[in-house]
User: Which sequence fits this backbone?
């Protein structure tokens, strides 16, 4: 049953635990002369990203276990305020930690602003990268029957019958994977893709037709319906 995506997300949950444990041991230690800045004083985007995000979202913003930040379509569909809110508050029930100090995290408000600005500055593409893309979020709940059809036409050739995994890509209905990600995350993946891994964006799916906003909602609802225990929030 295990898939690459579920295994890597399980691995990042373990990594999060190690990172948190690591932070606990820092305060109170004698200061090292070779450490020039206190963590809260770091203002360099590359350092902030490397130390706080790269472990899950990948070095240079891609090839991580979690969605790439280095993806022009993604940065075109998510606005700065939404990204800032996710980074500050995390996504409860998933491995995405809250980084704001007010939420128990380790970054100052200014550092979070610098991370958001740095992500767009480093990795946003041309202004029309997201032209015509379905909206980042939706409050419409999708239709399961239509979703099964969208899956068969647009996803099955890689992810196999019923989402169980195929020769090109792993399962998208693995219970341990689905219990670690929100519906918004599934939606993000369907629209923005994981181009660095060979998962297409909304425009380049297997049917040869761009996915409509309704089709995105439907296929997300269909995958989410396979989740063993519904997520309490953030779906
Ligand atoms: C051309 C092949 C291909 C098609 C078509 C495709 N995918 Fe993927 N998908 C991949 C690959 C490759 C990965 C990354 C490796 C893996 O998870 O096995 C991936 C990963 C995923 C992931 C996990 C991503 C993550 O970061 O957690 C989800 C969810 C997913 N695909 C859903 C879909 C859905 C829904 C569709 C149809 C709308 C679809 N895929 C169409 C190849 C494809
Ligand atoms: C321990 C692993 C981990 C770390 C560290 C981490 N993330 Fe995440 N991140 C995740 C996971 C898993 C998700 C998917 C959450 C969900 O299911 O909604 C995510 C989601 C996100 C999203 C929203 C994706 C979407 O659906 O639009 C953004 C933006 C993001 N992370 C940015 C960051 C930034 C910036 C950092 C560093 C300051 C960071 N993350 C650190 C694991 C991590």
Assistant:
């Amino acid at each position: 049953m295990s898939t690459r995506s579920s295994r890597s997300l399980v691995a990042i949950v373990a990594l999060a635990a190690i990172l948190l444990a690591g932070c606990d041991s820092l305060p109170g230690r004698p200061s090292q002369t070779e450490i020039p800045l206190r963590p809260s004083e770091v203002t360099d985007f590359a350092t902030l990203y490397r130390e706080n995000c790269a472990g899950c979202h990948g070095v240079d913003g891609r090839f991580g276990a979690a969605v790439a930040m280095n993806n022009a379509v993604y940065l075109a569909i998510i606005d700065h305020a939404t990204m800032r809110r996710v980074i500050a508050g995390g996504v409860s029930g998933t491995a995405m930690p809250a980084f704001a100090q007010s939420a128990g995290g380790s970054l100052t408000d200014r550092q979070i602003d610098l991370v958001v600005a740095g992500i767009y500055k480093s990795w946003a593409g041309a202004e029309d990268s997201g032209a015509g893309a379905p909206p980042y979020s939706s409050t419409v709940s999708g239709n399961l029957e239509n979703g099964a059809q969208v899956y068969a036409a647009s996803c099955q050739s890689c992810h196999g019958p019923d989402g169980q995994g195929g020769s090109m890509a792993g399962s998208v209905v693995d219970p341990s994977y689905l219990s670690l990600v929100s519906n918004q995350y599934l939606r993000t993946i369907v629209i923005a893709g994981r181009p660095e891994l060979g998962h297409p964006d909304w425009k380049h799916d297997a049917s040869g037709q761009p996915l409509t906003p309704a089709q995105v909602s439907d296929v997300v609802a269909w995958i989410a319906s396979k989740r063993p225990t519904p997520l309490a929030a953030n779906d």
